[in-house]
Amino acid sequence: MIGGHVVELEIFELLIFLCRKIVRKKDRFWIHAEELSGKFKCKYCSKVYSGGVARLKSHLSQVSGRDIETCDKVPPNVQTEAFIAICGDPSKRAKSTGSTNVNESGESIAVSGSRSFGGTNQMTMHEVYKKKNKEEVDQSLAKFFIMNNISFNVVQSESFIDLIKDVANYGSGYKVPSYSTLRTKLIPNEKKEAETYVGKVKSSWYLSGCTIMSDGWTDLKGKAFTNVIAYSPGAGDMLLGKYPRMYKTRCAAHGLQLLLKDIYKNAEWVRIVIDEARLIENHMYKHTVLLALMREATQKELKHPCITRFASNFLVLQSLVDVENELRLFVASAEWRESNLNKNRQAKKVTELVQNNEFWNRAKEVLQALEPIVRVLRLVDGEGSTSGYLYDAMERAKEAIKCRLGNNQNKFMRIWELFDERRNGNIIHPIHAAAALLNPAYMCRERFRESREMKDGIGFMFENLILPEEKEDFLKQVQLYRSRSTLIFNSTALMMLKTSHPRVWWDYCGDPLPVLRKYAVRILSQPCSSSSCERNWSAYEAAQTKKRNRLSSEMLDNLVYTRMNILAMKKWSTLESQDLEPINLEKLHELSEYIDDGKGGDGDDGEEIEETSLTNLDLLWLNQELEFADYNY
Questions:
Q1: Which residues cross the membrane (predicted)?
Q2: Which end of the chain is more exposed for a tag (fewer CB within 10 A), N or C?
């Protein structure tokens, strides 16, 4: 019997062993690994580890700190299953074992008997579920945009991104404020913040003065609008006031756009090239398939012409020249030749142009001729105190045009005539000539020559700006400044010529000449264009959309006032630092692409438009309805 007991015991142990093997084999996670003797080989990363299914699950779950290296190639669905197998379903555990709070530092704290997972495990838990949840949230967002007729470009706006981040940081317990709370509390709070900002800006006016900008237009319904904006170096938006001894200047940016238009109309060699460039751009963006092929071939976007900004034609031409080699290869490719979209007359003309050396040579000549004018436009087309630089920039542009076209008198003289006509009639005001003289860095240059226009500018100041009791001191101090007296041009002042904006230089170094200092700071603090004003054309219309047309006039005014000053606040720090440093006319920012109709192939690629900080996204369509006209000043 003893032997029989031994046999029975061995059989029993064998059965237990076999049962364990069967159970182990049935675990569904073994399909993700190859079983070896006492080890396993992961099917995803092909690495071999010792242990059984528990270590396999740990390996696949990507939960660190479980005495095994995690798999970096495991599919998301397998990783999720392994994580749940180890940690349990978070939603079920929250109901059955208590709650988990999150402290201010973002670490999880277990409460009421629940198991606590450290910060690393908690992060992994979020990663497991956010993939599926994100798709649901994205669809809800899409539905929200559709049902409320919101422009898709809003997703690119900084304010929308900030909103999403704030809601996500708050958590799932966030409740949307009521209509009444939004209207009676939250909007007024934003207005108070804007008023605080406006008060800060106004306080700078005593020193710097300000420019009042106005811009008029008519909408599609025949309504006439006048946009009035007060600009100061501190910010530059929506401030009104009446000041004695005002003077009126024209928008230099608009004058330069008109100059480019004049050249297009009167210089045939320029017009032909621009028309050909627009033909190429139009054909490339006319069809989705062709556009996709072009993008793949060039790895770049072409710029688009804008009917209200003639400098956009320069950008179109420049973008073509930048990808000349890629376009040549593209129109010679099999994809281009075999496409049915390239069988018509326009396509054949485009092919001929792109393969024509003469076209590219003429295009580069036009760019050379127009670049000096566009360079000045880059100076003035935006925010910033530029009045002390406009005169010098225009003189440099004129000399550059002469240098580049001087060998061809017919081409040069016509552009020179058009340049002078617009310069004197629409761009340079006597105050700009005076500002050039009052720019100490410009006046102290070796090649500086005081022109008749500068003297006339000082005379304009004397007659129109200087108070009667200050006129005698003003003239004396102008002479001291012109003579570069050591009273003001000491070693500190000479060093600051290279490091400071002219208005900052006068504010810091001009104490020996108090009267001249006061007026120099004010003049040198002003802009040369109303570009920032034009970008805010539709502020009132933006507030008075169909969904808001029952708002009171007071609420409409509050919305416009608040919106525009919030936008200005966003630029406050940038403008402050920008207006502390001198402007290098050789290193100006590039022109942004002018937004017109946001076109893309067959209208389905229009999402390429990027938001600019002062552009009303809901009313971008307005630009394409405006004809580029010579406004009467």
A1: none
A2: N
Residue 483 neighbours by CB distance under 10 Å: 11
Residue 319's SS3 state is helix
For the ranges 141-145, 169-173, 366-370, 414-418, the lowest mean pLDDT is seen at: 169-173
Instruction: Look up residue 56 and give its amino acid.
Output: L
Map out the domains of the chain as residue ranges.
Answer: 88-148, 199-633
Q: What is the tens place of the pLDDT at every residue in 589-603?
A: 655 554 443 333 333
571: pLDDT strictly greater than 90 = no
- Residue by residue, what is the 3-state secondary structure of 103-153? CCCCCEEEECCCCCCCHHHHHHHHHHHHHHHHHHHHHHHHHHHHHCCCCHH
The DSSP annotation for 50-118 comes to ES-HHHHHHHHHT-SSSSSPPPSS--HHHHHHHHHHHH--HHHHHHHS-EEEE-TTS-EEEETTPPP--
CA 565 – CA 525 distance, rounded (Å): 20
SS (H, E, C) 326-355: HHHHHHCCHHHHHCHHHCCHHHHHHHHHHC
Instruction: List, for residues 174-206, the tens digit of each pLDDT value.
Output: 888 888 888 888 888 888 887 777 777 777 665
Question: Distance between CA 369 and CA 408 in Å, rounded?
Answer: 12
pLDDT at site 537:
46
